[in-house]
Amino acid sequence: MALAIRDVREHDLDAVLALNNAAGRSILALDATRLRYFFEHADYFRVAEIDGHLAGFLIALREGSDYDSSNYCWFSQRYPQFVYIDRIVIANAYRRHGLGRIFYCDVNSYAEVRVPLLTCEVILEPRDDVVVLFHGTYGFQEVGQQRMSEQGPQVSLLAKDLPSYAYVRDTYLQSGGLPDVPWLAERKHLIPSNTTQRRLAGERRP
To answer: What residues does the N-acetyltransferase domain cover (predicted)?
Structure first.
């Protein structure tokens, strides 16, 4: 089995949309417009490809986006820097084989050299104990709860401290930036996100 985790490409979008909308009640449905927004603005949008087949994807955004998700906004109101995991979807044929952990390791590696906090939410209605346990064993802790809308589900807001960030900030981010190597590179956006625009402008945050 040949596994590749790579940045999404435009020709993947139809398959990503179909995979998302077949995932069931635990994943909010997408339309083509929302998916295009992610393609153009998400700081992290990677897919898993196994033997040439799309096996899953994960989408995450940093602080400073105009993303209108109520959960993203909850974190934006409380934390100055974070990476927010909006969704992870694994195709049925590839579930329960560790692909979710591979994605979380990858997004963790992306986040820990950029921000002090990795965040997400878990839907509690209906509660999926496998999902709750997965996040708990990966180091996430609940920092709040909210109802997504008047008729929406209750969610648990989760955050994971990234202790490596302080070292990276002090050693690299405050003195020239990250080394210019492929595994540390930013995703290439069609339209630069707010955080990308800040970095291009030379802004440094403590």
So the answer is: 3-163
Residues comprising the chain, all counted: 206
Condensed to tens digits (0 to 9), the pLDDT of residues 110-160 reads 999 999 999 999 999 888 898 999 999 999 999 999 998 888 889 999 999
Q: Rg of the Cα trace of the chain?
A: 17
At 55, list the tokens.
Answer: 């096996």
Q: What is the 3-state secondary structure (H, E, C) of 51-64?
A: CCEEEEEEEEEECC
- Tell which residue, 203, 194, 199, 202, has the closest CA to residue 184: 199
Question: Residue for token digits 């630069």?
Answer: 192
- Domains, the chain: 3-200 (3.40.630.30)
Phi, then psi, of 123 in degrees rounded to 5? -75, 130
The whole-angstrom separation of Cα 180 and Cα 172 is: 11
Q: Within the chain, where are the H helices?
A: 13-21, 32-41, 70-76, 99-112, 129-137, 164-168, 194-200
Comparing CA positions, the residue from 154, 120, 152, 114 lying closest to residue 138 is: 120
Q: Contact at 8 Å (CB) between 45 and 57?
A: yes
